[in-house]
Write a structure and sequence with these properties.
- Two copies of one chain form a homodimer.
- Chain A is an all-alpha fold and 222 residues long.
- Chain A has a single domain, classed as Phosphate transport system protein phou homolog 2, domain 2 (Methane Monooxygenase Hydroxylase, Chain G, domain 1).
- In chain A, 83% of the residues lie in helices and 0% in strands.
- The longest helix of chain A is centred in the first third of the chain and has 35 residues.
- In chain A, 50% of the residues are buried.
- Chains A and B meet through helix 2, helix 3, helix 5 and helix 6 of A and helix 2, helix 3, helix 5 and helix 6 of B.
């Protein structure tokens, strides 16, 4: 394989990873739409999209392996391939979170809709924006943009913590709302995990660009 | 680098990963001991061990990169190195879960100890056993043993689901126990995530041994 062909293959790998990112993001958007309008048919869409995400994850891993096998890549390319391997795994888990949320929404169907002291769509928007921005920083090889994702994560963590205490207070005052409040609490935590995955991706981008490992930026989880 | 030296380096990589596994497992054991005896000083131990786990994760990733850069590994060795990269990331996240549990235990200090309808130490023992078994299957290259971890995960998921409903019922009946019940619910979910990471590791072992991807065994999350 020539050097030029090798770099074409790296580009293909990147393209495939972006498709993967699009699928993961769509799954999250749909899961939250299902939550917002309490629609079980959207939940089914999310659950049914999981096998395709999983299949694509395997394809990308295999492509990465093939590239490692065929060439003796240079350090920067190696770091790129390692970043792809890590990001791929995180995107698949974003898809898992979408499925978890969809399953929660189905459970909620049995209970009347109530007002809760947590803005799940806003939390979801922030988490999805983190994933988008992390991927954008990957496309552009922009470590500074990636670093801004880490700041967004602090915000998601804070919103999630606030939701935890507000819902916990609500449950004590109105125990009859326990099922809905617990469901919202779990969905908020699922979204926080999406934010954690976006953070992982951003850290991988910074590592790839700078060859410097910034993982283990403080991560909290109420 | 000679072939023999390359294989020595692979062994070193494996050794380092086992040290990493030992640290992650110890962190979980300590976090659960802290939960059991409600001891904040053990929580501090867990939180303080995180930087070493993170440092070791970086070292292992770097070693894997160096090995990929120095040799043109054969397919089986490539799959091994890829498995190490994946397992390494999962072990680091097991350590994160231990920290999350330790943080929860500290929060619990403010509330009186009460009996709850969830056997956290048993759930923890099962999750820790999954990690141990997944690593054992890695050491022995035993895909069958790895497959048994997937079965254990179903059990952890079921226990966690039962805990969710039991705690949710308790909260409705005794809203004054909400803080303790929510804390236990979160700890149970943290342990379920440990089980998920063990499952990921087991799947990586099977992939390494068989070159066959069994990831995406059904994973549930209440």
């Amino acid at each position: 394989m020539t050097r030029i062909k090798f770099h074409q293959s790296l580009d293909e790998l990147k393209e495939k990873l972006l498709v993967m990112a699009g699928m993961a993001e769509q799954a999250i958007q749909r899961a939250i739409e299902a939550y917002r309008v309490r629609d079980a048919s959207i939940c089914n869409l999310v659950v049914r999209s999981e096998p395709s995400i999983n299949r694509l994850e395997r394809e990308i891993d295999q492509m990465a392996l093939d590239l490692l096998a065929m060439e003796q890549p240079m350090a920067i390319d190696l770091r790129f391939i390692l970043a792809v391997i890590h990001i791929n795994a995180d995107l698949e888990r974003v898809g898992d979170q979408a499925v978890n949320i969809a399953v929660r929404v189905r459970e909620m169907e049995a209970f009347p809709s109530v007002d809760l002291p947590v803005d799940i769509p806003r939390l979801a928007e922030l988490a999805a924006a983190m994933v988008r921005k992390a991927l954008q920083s990957f496309i552009e090889g922009d470590a500074e943009m990636a670093a801004s994702v880490l700041t967004m994560d602090d915000q998601v963590d804070k919103m999630n913590e606030a939701a935890f205490y507000a819902l916990s207070t609500l449950i004590r005052e109105k125990p009859e709302l326990t099922p809905q409040a617990l469901n919202a609490l779990i969905v908020a935590r699922n979204l926080e995990r999406v934010g954690d995955h976006a953070t992982n991706i951003a850290e991988d981008v910074i590592f790839w660009v700078h060859g410097k490992d910034v993982r283990h930026h403080v991560r909290s989880d109420v």
